[in-house]
């Protein structure tokens, strides 16, 4: 249904039975979109109780730990970008995990062939979690409600449980081996030792208790108290380096956003170690092409943007790291001249022979994550992306706590030198890029997505779908996606959802692209959620990705 | 008519099961497609008290000393990536294994437990390539909505057992090894 037709509808209309059919949630005052209906409900509850967008975002984030436990939670970290309507200020809270202080550059490379396992399923894989610190910082600086109140919906979800969705079941099955090995057959994350089937009831009383303890005693109990001790015990039992001091010294930080133009709009997003930089680079390059003329499913568009992705990934390999420890030439990478040069390099009918620079290897191509957006009645907005990295993270669960520890140490580069090698207290490079877009000085789009290295390319495609191809938000989200990258100078296959026309796929192959066809709505490409603020019609229009359990609601 | 009756009997449930072919342990368990379900089959095998060896990258040499090959069907791009394989290399691995089993007269039991989610062009390649070599197949019903398993099993006289969910595969698995 077209965006314009939504105006006349009641805000109470329901999504279609076919969840892949584009559908926009409509609101007039406020809205929450997230990867699970229970999490959306949590955010709305807080808004209706007088909370602002920051309160609601933290409530939704906490609820996602209970409702979508395989994708994020207090065992992980993330980023949020906040818009404060009254002061017209945009700010970022960085709650990305940190490497333990005992981390060192060769901590993984010295493991030889066993490095992949150490990076993902053992104690070395776990970064110092930042989620609670980030939520707490955001609430203290910009919220109006205490953490105890905004965590209440999450506690109820974990305690009461809910029927498992097809998404949950499918991911539970995919990660079965890891869960079995690290959490055991009796874990709450398995149903009597086997994955949950859709419709089966899942409850997590231990998580409910942990969140209740935090609500009662504050985040100190997590970073310095009894939960901290359980985290360290679990990590060290599996060969990790984290200590109580690492947890006690963790801090989330507030930082300035990055921003850049795209066809008359201004896009605000997160700085390094997030990938907002690379999202802006991709848009800078794309702005040189007549995309609307080429068409959304044209080989010209797919080819050019794919080559641009490979060039941007080459920059990412060379430069992205923790800005607290490495110099990142942000201005140079975002310069108009560089974008013009990169756009001109790309040949319309063949692939580049190499993608500069060539001097390092990229992070492994995984990572999953979740995203939520909130707009409140005052016009404040939050786009929050958070994660435990792989689905079900490291699979390590501190005893009796019910939450999963991340494996974000795997986001450090596989080599032991370069801007993104492991180091004490370093935050690993992240693909996250939650964003706010402004037109004529007014907030017009809140957007973000999970999906590992596919995050910022997918967000660029969604923005291009809206701005260049005139799609509504959910049409833009549901439209077929594509992704490629480069590694050590070489282009990697082009991953496509097969919903592109067959003749276009053939044309791409004739240009030299090696094609990998994914599923029609593949969660490999992420699960974007967004809200458009229609300032003329005074409407909020939400889009939620059917690749995961995306949902929204407004009032 | 009799064949149709057998199919209906399979669908109706355990009490109406047709006579199952008998297999002997030890069983080599591997996947055809690097799916996650192969690990679940190993857990079910353990619960069934079945002497077995799980080897996700099994080749012909690993059949030595084994009396049954259990092949868990379904492609996972994630699993293939983790194993450093692509579809073509995995196909070659399983082809070699199935051919070796045929030469040694080692019977094959196939399972497809991923349901509808574990269907699609790539999974179907493995199903069509290797299911015909089986004597018996245990399949989660939602994976057979289009009748692919029914058709192949009927064409090749393979006993097909449908179950509603993964945990229900335990009973037919136990019965298939019951007299060993």
Order of helices and strands of chain B: HEHEEHHEHEHEH
Shape type of chain A: globular
Overall geometric form of chain B = globular
What is the terminal separation of chain A in angstroms? 19 Å
Helical residue percent band of chain A = 25-40%
Question: Any idea what the radius of gyration of chain B is?
Answer: 15 Å
CATH class division of chain B: Alpha Beta
Q: How would you write the strand order of the largest sheet of chain B?
A: 2-1-3-4-5-6
Proportion in β-strands of chain B: 15-25%
Q: How many distinct domains of chain B?
A: 1
Beta-strand percent range of chain A: 15-25%
Widest sheet, order of strands of chain A: 1-20-19-13-12-9-8
Kindly report the greatest chain-chain contact and the residue count on each side.
A-B, 20 and 16 residues
Taking Cα atoms only, what radius of gyration of chain A do you get, to the nearest Å?
22 Å
Assigned CATH architecture of chain B: 3-Layer(aba) Sandwich
Structural class of chain A: alpha+beta
Number of strands of chain A: 21
User: What would the CATH topology of chain B be?
Assistant: Rossmann fold
Explain what the structure shows:
Chain A contains 19 helices and 21 strands. Chain A has a domain at 39-79 and 91-250 and 387-411. With 555 residues, chain A is an alpha+beta fold. Chain A is globular. Chain A has helices at residues 37-48, 53-67, 115-120, 131-142, 147-160, 166-174, 176-183, 205-217, 220-223, 226-237, 244-248, 276-286, 291-294, 299-319, 330-333, 336-345, 455-467, 473-478, 502-510; strands at residues 25-27, 31-34, 77-84, 89-95, 162-163, 201-202, 253-255, 258-262, 265-269, 370-375, 381-387, 435-439, 442-448, 482-483, 486-487, 490-491, 494-496, 515-517, 529-534, 539-544, 551-554. Chain B has a single domain (2-10, 22-176), classed as Rossmann fold (3-Layer(aba) Sandwich). Helices cover 39% and strands 17% of the residues of chain B. In chain B, helix 4 (87-103) packs parallel to helix 5 (121-130). The N and C termini of chain B lie far apart (32 Å). The chains are: A alpha+beta (555), B alpha/beta (180).
């Amino acid at each position: 249904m077209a965006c314009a037709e939504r105006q006349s509808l009641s805000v109470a209309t329901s999504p279609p039975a076919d969840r892949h059919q584009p559908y926009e949630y409509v609101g007039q005052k406020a809205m929450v979109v997230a990867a699970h209906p229970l999490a959306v409900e949590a955010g709305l509850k807080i808004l209706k109780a007088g909370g602002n967008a920051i309160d609601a975002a933290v409530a939704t984030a906490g609820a996602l730990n209970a409702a979508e436990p395989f994708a994020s939670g207090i065992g992980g970290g993330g980023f949020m970008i906040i818009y404060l309507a009254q002061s017209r200020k945009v700010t970022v809270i960085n709650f990305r995990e940190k490497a333990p202080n005992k981390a060192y550059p060769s901590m993984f490379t010295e493991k030889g062939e066993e490095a992949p396992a150490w990076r993902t399923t053992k104690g070395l894989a776990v970064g110092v979690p930042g989620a609670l610190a980030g939520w707490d910082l955001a609430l203290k600086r910009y919220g109006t409600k205490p953490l105890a109140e905004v965590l209440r919906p999450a506690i109820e979800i974990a305690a009461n449980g809910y029927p498992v969705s097809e998404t949950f079941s499918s991911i539970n099955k995919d990660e079965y081996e890891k869960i079995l090995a690290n959490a055991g057959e009796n874990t709450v994350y398995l149903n009597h030792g086997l994955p949950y089937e859709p419709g089966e009831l899942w409850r997590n009383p231990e998580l409910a208790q942990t969140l209740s303890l935090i609500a009662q005693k504050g985040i100190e109990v997590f970073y310095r108290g009894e939960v901290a001790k359980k985290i360290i015990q679990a990590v060290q039992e599996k060969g990790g380096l984290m200590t109580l001091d690492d947890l006690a010294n963790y801090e989330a930080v507030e930082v300035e956003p990055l921003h850049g133009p795209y066809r008359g709009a201004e896009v605000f997003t997160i700085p390094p170690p997030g990938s907002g930089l690379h999202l802006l680079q991709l848009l800078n390059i794309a702005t040189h092409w007549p995309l609307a003329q080429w068409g959304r499913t044209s080989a010209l568009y797919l080819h050019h943007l794919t080559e641009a992705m490979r060039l941007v990934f080459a920059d990412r390999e060379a430069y992205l790291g923790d800005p607290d420890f490495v110099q990142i030439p942000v201005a140079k990478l975002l310069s108009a001249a560089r974008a013009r040069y990169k756009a001109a390099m790309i040949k319309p009918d063949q692939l580049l022979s190499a993608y500069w620079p060539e001097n390092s290897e990229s992070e492994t191509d995984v990572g999953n994550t979740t995203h939520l957006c909130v707009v409140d009645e005052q016009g404040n907005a939050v786009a929050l992306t958070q994660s435990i990295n792989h689905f079900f993270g490291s699979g390590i669960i501190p005893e009796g706590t019910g939450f999963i520890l991340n494996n974000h140490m795997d986001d450090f580069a596989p080599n032991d030198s370069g801007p993104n090698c492991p180091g004490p207290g370093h935050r690993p490079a992240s693909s996250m890029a939650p964003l706010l877009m402004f037109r004529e000085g007014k907030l017009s789009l809140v957007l973000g997505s999970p999906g590992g290295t596919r995050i910022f390319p997918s967000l660029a495609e969604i923005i291009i779908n809206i701005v260049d191809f005139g799609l509504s938000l959910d049409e833009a989200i549901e439209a077929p996606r594509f992704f490629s990258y480069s590694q050590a100078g070489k282009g990697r296959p082009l991953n496509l959802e097969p919903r592109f026309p067959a003749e276009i796929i053939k044309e791409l192959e004739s240009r030299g692209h090696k094609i990998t066809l994914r599923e029609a709505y593949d969660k490999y490409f992420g699960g974007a959620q967004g809200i458009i603020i229609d300032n003329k019609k005074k409407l909020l229009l939400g889009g939620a990705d059917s690749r995961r359990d995306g949902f929204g609601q407004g009032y | 008519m009799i064949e149709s009756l057998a199919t209906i009997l399979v669908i109706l449930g355990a009490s109406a099961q047709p006579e199952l072919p008998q297999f002997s342990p030890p069983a080599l368990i591997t996947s055809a497609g690097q799916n996650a379900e192969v690990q679940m089959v190993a857990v079910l095998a353990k619960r069934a008290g079945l002497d077995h060896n799980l080897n996700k990258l099994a080749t012909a040499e690993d059949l030595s000393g084994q009396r049954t090959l259990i092949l868990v069907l379904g492609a996972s791009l994630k699993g293939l990536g983790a194993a450093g394989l692509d579809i073509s290399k995995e196909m070659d691995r399983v082809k070699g294994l199935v051919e070796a089993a045929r030469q040694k007269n080692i019977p094959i039991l196939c399972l497809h437990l991923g349901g509808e989610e574990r269907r699609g062009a790539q999974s179907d390649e493995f199903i069509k390539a290797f299911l015909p070599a089986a004597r018996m197949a245990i399949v989660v019903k939602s994976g057979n909505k289009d009748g692919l398993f029914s058709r192949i099993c009927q064409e090749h006289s393979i006993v097909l057992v449908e179950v509603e969910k993964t945990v229900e595969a335990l009973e037919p698995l136990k019965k298939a090894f019951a007299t060993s």
